[in-house]
UniProtKB/TrEMBL annotation:
Protein name as it appears in the record: MsnO8 family LLM class oxidoreductase
Annotated family: To bacterial alkanal monooxygenase alpha and beta chains.
Residues spanning the membrane: none
Pfam families xrefs: Bac_luciferase (PF00296)
Length: 329
């Protein structure tokens, strides 16, 4: 089973954005040494709880300290950028780290509306035009551009592997029609039926055997109780962000386990916590390992990617270590 990591460079309370980015680099080094297949970095904007606004910059740092693991963006938010520039960035990474670069693309805003306006004058128009932007980007990535005046540099023998990321049947359809590999973000999707989404992708593929990744949230520890404790930090982090949209006065960083457990919730928020806890994969090594094997087998995917946000880096590394050890048995 191929197992990979999606990291969001979350900023924990008591730490700085620099600490968060250093933690991301340390996690990537651990993942490389432990045999994980990919390490992707998300893209977020205008949220102080995330330090992942420029994944292409962080990937360059990670590439220097790793040897075998594939590294990439999950996802580059294409409506904000000119495809030509994105192609140049990822061809540069491919020149530095040949055979290891992935380019995941998506169209989500990745932040509040004010940030979308600051990044692009035409975000909504470009988001609707995503199929054309993706087509243009793929041509550049594969050096298929026919305009002799446009030369993508640097010129490499190996080009980045392109993926489309999404959370719905619509994105699955778009990925299939574009002939791209597809990564389904189950961990942040309301689509419900994974099988239906992946069938939509396969049905829309035209003469191309596209690869499929499913991204999920998982927390693993020596005991189920400890796993649930470390998961609470992430769940309460989500509740705090939702409150902030209405109040704009909460500390937008990942709380400690102790703070999360003592956080005072409304009745509705308590229901949200229970629902989110049930929707995640949380438990001991055997519990989490069994659930991951079942998903991998039932959904017939090529790879599982895991997102895990914990207050302490050591809890995150321990969670991934336990999972990898179980799946390698």
């Amino acid at each position: 089973m191929k197992i990979s990591i999606l990291d969001q460079a979350v900023v924990s309370k008591g730490e700085s954005s620099r600490d968060a980015l250093n933690n991301t680099v340390d996690l990537a080094v651990f993942a490389d040494k432990s045999g994980f297949y990919r390490f992707w970095i998300a893209e977020h904007h205008g949220m102080t709880g995330f330090a992942s606004s420029a994944p292409e910059v962080v990937l360059s740092a990670i590439g220097q300290l790793t040897k075998d693991i594939r590294i990439g963006s999950g996802a580059t938010l294409l409506p904000y950028y000119k495809p030509f520039k994105v192609a140049e960035q990822y061809h540069t990474l491919s020149a530095l780290y040949p055979g290891r670069i992935d380019l995941g693309i998506g169209r989500a805003p990745g932040g509040p509306a004010e940030v979308s306006e600051a990044l692009s004058d035409n975000y909504l128009k470009n988001a609707l035009n995503m199929p054309e932007l993706a087509k243009e980007l793929i041509n550049y990535i594969n050096y298929d551009n026919t305009d002799y005046k446009l030369k993508i540099t640097p010129k490499n023998e190996e080009v980045p592997e392109v993926w489309m990321l999404g959370t719905s049947e619509k994105s699955a359809e778009a990925a299939g029609q574009a002939g791209l590999n597809y990564c389904f973000g189950e961990f942040m999707s309301n689509a419900g039926d994974i099988k239906k989404v992946l069938k939509t992708y396969k049905d829309n593929l035209s003469g191309n055997n596209g690869k499929v990744i499913v991204t999920i949230t998982a927390f693993c520890a020596e005991t189920t109780e400890k796993a649930r404790d470390i998961a609470m930090s992430s769940i309460i982090f989500g509740i705090m962000k939702e409150r902030e949209f209405g109040e704009s006065k909460n500390d937008d960083r990942l709380p400690s386990v102790e703070e999360a457990k003592s956080f005072i919730l409304t009745e509705e928020e308590n229901r949200k916590v229970s629902h989110r806890m049930d929707s995640m994969i949380i438990g001991s090594q055997q519990e989490v390992g069994n659930m991951l094997e079942r998903i991998y087998s039932d959904e017939n995917v090529d790879e599982l990617m895991i997102s895990t946000n914990t207050h302490l880096l050591e809890d995150k590394i321990n969670s991934f270590r336990l999972i990898k050890e179980y799946l390698d048995k």
